[in-house]
Design a protein that fits this description.
By secondary structure, the protein is of the alpha/beta class. It has a single domain, classed as Aldolase class I (TIM Barrel). The protein has 14 helices and 10 strands. Strands 7-6-5-4-3-2-1-8-9-10 form a 10-stranded mixed beta sheet, with helices on one face. Helix 1 links the parallel strand 1 and strand 2. Helix 1 packs parallel to helix 2 and helix 3 runs parallel beside helix 5. The longest helix is centred in the last third of the chain and has 32 residues. The C terminus is likely disordered.
Length: about 400
């Protein structure tokens, strides 16, 4: 089977000014063997020659990488859609360089709660304010922005207010990603969401996707094949894309199917398929022995609930990174929505059932509430404008 490389996440550097509690990469110091700039620029050509369509530049903090502008600029010049994920701290200082690259697909920043929660997660006082300011600055510069939120037990109650904040600063898209065991999270496992809390996240997302001006979408660790699936991921879950159409490249040139595929502890990573300093990228990608965990996934090896699930052949036990982090195996996922709902008698095992009447009622109530808030805001703005012009303000909308 042919596996075209369409999407890549490239860790430009592991250097980072923050030490986030939930960082999967233990980011902080530069890797000793970080790719020099000339090799990184040559790697751009290798990626394009494989047919790459989209890339996300990440870290660490990518704005700390010397020559990041040249790497991003060359990718754009070669016709690749380029995005970047930043912690927002250096955005103002690097703004001129960011704006000079006029072909951004999106610039994303990570916001993990309201002020106190976010700054605590990031161990960096002032981080929240810099990110919120950064969103406004980028909007003013005409650059589309996105937000990534890593959801834990501590920021789950803040999602509604965080949503309204993102709308107010002009963010276009919001990716919601449950944290899972990996990197520093191993030291703070009290943050992890349980299966029932994942259902709560899915319910929240289903409501927002119906009514929000934001494009709200889940990261791969949330799913799969449950009655929520059509409402949080309309295209449906097609199995983990790592090594099938997605590659992750670490700052030292190590190639994996996804950057989130982490070793059980610091040290050798069983998911590294090769290094571009020793082997051409095409040879790594096209090697039939590589990326076996997705390309040659064997449903017969599925264990636990996954071994009995009717969706296992297509689902492939969900996100490989989360599954392996939770169990040390790629064949059993304890954090699946379908599993949680089925075990609690809330899921039809034969099909992806439509929303229940109770869920529809809740959704309609939310839509009505949202509409009323918008009407009130529009009326207040109109009243202020009319007052400024010396006209009699209107009495306001009749809300129902």
């Amino acid at each position: 089977m042919d596996y075209p490389l369409r999407f890549c996440v490239w860790e430009l550097t592991l250097a980072c000014n923050m030490r986030c509690l939930h960082c999967g990469s233990y980011a902080g110091r530069v890797r000793k063997d970080e790719l020099p700039l000339d090799r990184a620029l040559a790697l751009v050509d290798e990626l394009v020659d494989l047919g790459l369509e989209r890339i996300t530049l990440s870290g660490g903090e990518p704005l700390l990488r010397k020559g990041w502008e040249q790497i991003a600029g060359k990718l754009m010049d070669r016709g690749v859609r380029v995005g970047m994920i930043s912690n927002g701290w250096y955005l103002r200082e690097r703004l001129r360089s960011i704006v000079a690259l006029k072909k951004w697909d999106v610039v994303a920043m990570s916001l993990d709660g309201l002020r106190m929660t976010h700054d605590a997660f990031r161990r960096t006082p002032g981080s929240y304010d810099r990110i919120v300011t950064g969103f406004r600055i980028l909007r003013g510069a005409g650059i589309d922005t996105a937000c990534i939120t890593c959801v834990s037990r501590y920021n789950l109650p803040e999602l509604d207010r965080l949503h309204d904040l993102l709308v107010s600063v002009g963010v276009k898209a919001w990716q919601i990603q449950p944290i899972f065991v990996g990197g520093r999270t191993r030291e703070y496992q009290d943050m992890l969401l349980g299966p029932r809390e994942l259902v709560e996240v899915a319910s929240f997302m289903a409501r927002k996707r119906k009514c929000s001006p934001l494009e709200v979408y889940p990261a791969d660790p949330l799913g799969y094949c449950s009655r929520f699936e059509p409402y949080i991921r309309p295209e449906g879950w097609q199995g983990c894309g790592a090594g099938k159409y997605l590659a992750g490249i670490e700052a030292n040139g190590d190639v994996k199917g996804c950057l989130s595929l982490l070793p059980e502890r610091r040290g050798d990573n069983p998911f590294v398929e090769g290094n571009v300093n020793r082997t051409p990228l095409r040879e790594i990608w096209e090697n039939p022995e590589n990326f076996a965990y997705t390309r040659r996934f064997d449903p017969a090896k599925a264990a636990g609930f996954c071994g009995t699930c009717p969706h296992v052949a297509g689902c492939q036990c969900g996100c490989t990174a989360m599954t392996y982090a939770a169990t040390g195996s790629i064949y059993e996922n304890p954090n699946c929505l379908y599993r949680e709902l089925k075990l609690n008698g809330e899921e039809d095992p034969r099909t992806l059932v439509p929303m229940t009447p109770e869920f529809q009622e809740e959704l309609l109530a939310y839509c009505k509430e949202t509409r009323n808030r918008r009407l009130q805001a529009d009326w207040a703005l109109s009243r202020a404008r009319r007052a400024a012009l010396g006209k009699n303000p209107s009495p306001g909308p009749q809300l129902t």
